C-alpha cells in the first residue's frame, strides 16, 4: 500500500516478474493451490499480490477494467505510470480488478468466441482471506479433489459449463494468490 | 552475466507469451495464437520451445534440454548453452535434478514430478493440418468439435495396412474436448502425457502455444476393435539391458549389423552406473 504513484514497481523487473509468473503459472495449473507472490505495491486498497500480478501480466496491450472500490485518481495514476494499460468498460476488458461484489455482473466480461476461446477476460478478484476449504473443485490440474474458499459457487459452476468459453479468475489476498481457470468444475459440498 | 536481458527476450514479449501460456493452461489442448519472435536460431530448431522456456525460467531453475531423448546432440547442447549465457541458469543432464526440461520429440523415461515443467518443441501444432490445409476451416472444426476427419484418417490406415500405422505425432483428445498434436513424440510416449508435471507446447514458426495441466485426461484416439497400442522395438537395450524403454536402432556396419539403444541417454547412463548391462556392453566389459 502506498500513495506515491511513482514507486511500487519491481526493483529487478526481469527476475522478479519471472518468479511471480512461475507462482501464477503454478496456481493456474493447479486450481485451488495457494501460492505466495511478492514484489509490487500499489495504492490502497490494491493488495501486494494483485499489484505484483498486474506488473507481471498487464501492459499497454491489455485493456483493464477497474471495479468501483478499486478505481480512483491515485490508482489510475499508478497504473498509467507503471503499466500503461488503457482503462475500459467491462465488455472490452482483458483484465479486471476488484472485489467480487463490485465486479458484478460478472457475466458482462468477454468469454471468448468458439473459434478463439482465449479472447476472454481474466478477473483479478480481491478477497479478504484465502483458505483451502470451501467449494469442491475437480478437473484438469487436480489429482483427485481440491478445496478453495470462493466468494460463491453458482457463477463458477455456470462458467465451467460454458467450457471452452468462459472467464478465468485469480483470487488475491495480501501476498497470497490462487487461481480458478474455466476448466475447473465447482460444486457446493 | 552477459549484456542480454534475463532469458534473452524483452519484458514486453515475455508478458505477451506469459498471457498466452496462462490461457493455454486454462483451456487444455487449445492452441493459443501468440506473436512469435525471431530467435537467434533457425525455425525447426525449437524457436517455439525456446520462447516458452524463456518466459518460464527463473534464476533458481535448473534446465535440461533433450533432443530425441539425448542430452548430447547439437540442438540440445546449443539451446542449453543459449540459456546458460542469456539467463545464467544452471543446467543439468539429470532428469530428476531438472526443474524445467525442454524437449524435442521425447518424454523422459523417468516419471516427472509436480515440481517439473516439460516444454515441447512443436513443428506443426495443428493435428488436422494435413487433412485440411486452411486455418479458417481447422479453426471452425475445433470450434464445432468436428473431428470425424481424423477418425477417417485412422480408419484408412486400418483398411490399407491392417492396423493404425501412425507411429509418432499420434493424435490425442485432451479432457474430452480438443484433439491435439502431441508433437512428433513416438506413440510409445503418449500414455505418459497423463503426468504430475505441467506440459507446455511452443510452435515458433506456426505461432501457437498450448498446454496440458497436471493430471489432465489425455486419450489417444482409437477404435474399440483397434485399441491404441504404445509400441516400441521388440528388443532390450544393448547397452543397459532395459526392456521397457524406447529404443533407437543404430546401424553399426555395412553388413547388416545393428544395435538397439535407449533413446533417453540419461536413463541409459543411470542404469549403466547402477550396474545394469546389455548384450553389447557386457562383451566390451569382458
From TrEMBL, chain A:
One of its GO terms (biological process) is organic phosphonate metabolic process. InterPro entries: PhnH-like_sp (IPR038058), Phosphonate_metab_PhnH (IPR008772). It comes from the Bacteria. Transmembrane segments: none annotated. It holds the Pfam family PhnH. NCBIfam families: PhnH_redo. This is Alkylphosphonate utilization protein PhnH.
UniProtKB/TrEMBL annotation, chain B:
Pfam families: PhnJ (PF06007). One of its GO terms (molecular function) is 4 iron, 4 sulfur cluster binding. It comes from the Bacteria. Its EC number is 4.7.1.1. It catalyses: alpha-D-ribose 1-methylphosphonate 5-phosphate + AH2 + S-adenosyl-L-methionine = alpha-D-ribose 1,2-cyclic phosphate 5-phosphate + methane + 5'-deoxyadenosine + L-methionine + A + H(+). GO terms for biological process: organic phosphonate catabolic process. InterPro entries: PhnJ. Belongs to the PhnJ family. Catalyzes the breakage of the C-P bond in alpha-D-ribose 1-methylphosphonate 5-phosphate (PRPn) forming alpha-D-ribose. This is Alpha-D-ribose 1-methylphosphonate 5-phosphate C-P lyase. It comes from Maritimibacter alkaliphilus HTCC2654.
